[in-house]
Design goal:
Elements lengths: L3 E2 L5 H10 L4 E7 L2 E7 L3 E7 L7 H11 L8 E4 L5 E7 L1
InterPro entries: DUF1827, LMG18311-like_sf
Protein name: DUF1827 domain-containing protein
Pfam family, one: DUF1827
Length: about 90
């Protein structure tokens, strides 16, 4: 699995996140058919995984946590929608 930085393709999303939330850092990655949106503020890290074609797999979630959260042994909150097409990971700093 590879995370590919596709932030430049989502400039409107990045601009919107920076202007309407307390985020001071936004990156967008592609993990195959799964999009990964990483946002960071001074208090928290938020990561959203989204796949419109299929359910987000457990190994994708683990891979993203290990790659994007520096101290992945820290506690995080996982929010899953009923269809498992959108997963949100929240880490308090």
């Amino acid at each position: 699995m590879h995370l590919i930085d596709v932030t430049n393709n989502y400039s409107n999303l990045v601009h919107s996140q920076l202007n309407t939330t307390d985020a001071n850092y936004v990156k967008v990655y592609s993990l195959g058919n799964t999009s990964v949106i990483y946002t960071e503020s001074k208090n928290a890290i938020g990561i959203a995984l989204e796949n419109h074609d299929r359910r987000v797999r457990e190994d994708e979630i683990e891979f993203v946590i290990k790659r994007l959260i520096k101290d992945y042994d820290s506690s995080y909150t996982l929010t899953v929608d009923k269809s498992r097409h959108v997963i949100e990971i929240h880490v308090d700093k």
